Amino acid sequence: MHRGKGMKFVGDSRVPAERKPNIPKDYSEFPGKTEAFWPNFLLKEWMVGAVFLIGYLCLTIAHPSPLEKMADPTDTAYIPLPDWYFLFLYQLLKYSYASGPYNAIGAFIIPGLAFGGLLLAPFIDRGPERRPSKRPLATGFMLLALAAITFLTWESVATHDWEAAKAQGQIVAEVEFDQESDGYKLLDQNGCLACHGGDLQGGGPNPALVGNELTADDVKDIAKNGRGSMPAGMFKGTDEELEVLAEFVSSLKSE
Where exactly are the transmembrane stretches of this chain (predicted)? Predict the structure, then answer.
């Protein structure tokens, strides 16, 4: 070493430089923050799961499933209603441009484009920014999808005929009746079976005749003056025949 020249350092390239960025500390360095997986941690998980399971069972007991009567594939007047997470697609199929001859557009093309756009959004907008305001394309796609789903779901709930749907799905007690009786034949002759069905279980907006709570006078009044979707003057027979029909229908009460 010479005066005024300073010190010189010699490095050895055989010694690797170990860099460990962003590696978290081992859990053993946090005393009191850890616990044994078995049985301590699993026991807590099971206890939480048991609480939720018991709560769910209580909910199912307090609010049973809204079951309807047995499905009838011949009932073309039935008003279907899917689960809430499909209501927006159900509403979409009600519009003229997505139903009838254009059903494929509402069932496949429009949903395919919408979900395809959401799937492709992360690949189209590949910027490093994480703030929604810095990613307008991905944010716009998501906001548009949420707005469309919210609007269509609301429209489906607001325009659905809940009263008719409740009436058509009611489970009606089975009541035995004679299809060879004069009252049943009068129902057939006056076109009543076309709406109320050969089994008198009704369908769509047409109520069931079996299990009704009508009196003979109620039946006469409905046959003459109509009620609900049934117009007046449907019965074309005599007063004696009306009496027979009214007695027959009023006898179809549930046990």
Answer: 46-64, 105-124, 136-154
Domain membership flag for residue 72: no
Q: Which two tokens stand for residue 86?
A: 């499909």
Q: What is the DSSP code (8-state) at residue 8? A: -
> Could you tell me the CA-to-CA distances from 238 to 135, 152, 183, 191 in Å, in that order?
77, 51, 13, 15
Is 187 part of a structural domain of the chain?
yes
Q: How many structural domains are present in the chain? A: 3
* Same domain, yes or no: 155 and 186: no
Threshold 0.70, pTM exceeds: no
Task: Tell me the pLDDT tens digit for each residue of 64-118.
Answer: 877 777 777 776 667 778 888 999 999 999 898 888 888 899 889 999 998 888 8
Domain housing 54 = 35-62
Task: Report, in this order, helix, strand and coil percent for the chain, each rounded to 5.
Answer: 55, 0, 45
Q: What is the pLDDT of residue 162?
A: 81
